[in-house]
Write a structure and sequence with these properties.
The protein is of the alpha+beta class. 47% of the residues lie in helices and 12% in strands. The protein is built from 3 helices and 4 strands. Strand 3 and strand 4 form a beta hairpin. Helix 2 packs antiparallel against helix 3.
């Protein structure tokens, strides 16, 4: 079987890419990972800001866990927005981002009051 020659530059590049991937997986946080976390946080805030929070019944509402500090320990919004926020939260954790703060376990019971989702 013939040996394949791989130039040292390619090996170094692949080594750097592997280290970055491991760092973003949660072994440590690099500035590149922090930028990705910041981008996800910005999208999360934009999604919350655009939420209609409109409802006709309690089932039209949903809860969310925050990935940004200024949203406290979570909240209630319309069900469609809650689903989009859940996907962003998953993306946030998959990127190795850390919670902005620790919150105690809480029960979320969304309700529709006067056409607006609330808790």
């Amino acid at each position: 079987m013939p040996l394949v020659h791989v130039p040292a530059v390619k090996i170094e590049l692949w080594s750097l890419l592997a280290l970055f991937a491991l760092a973003c997986a949660g072994l440590s946080v690099t500035s590149g990972c922090r930028s990705e976390c910041s981008r996800i946080q910005a999208r999360f805030e934009e999604t919350v800001d655009r939420a209609s929070r409109a409802c006709r019944q309690d089932g039209d509402c949903g809860c969310f866990n925050p990935v940004v500090e200024d949203l406290g320990c979570g909240g209630v919004t319309d069900r469609g927005t809650a689903g989009r926020l859940a996907r962003l939260e998953h993306e946030f954790h998959s990127a190795g981002c850390e919670w902005p703060h620790q919150c105690p376990a809480m029960a979320c019971m969304p309700r529709c009051v006067a056409g607006r989702c609330t808790q």
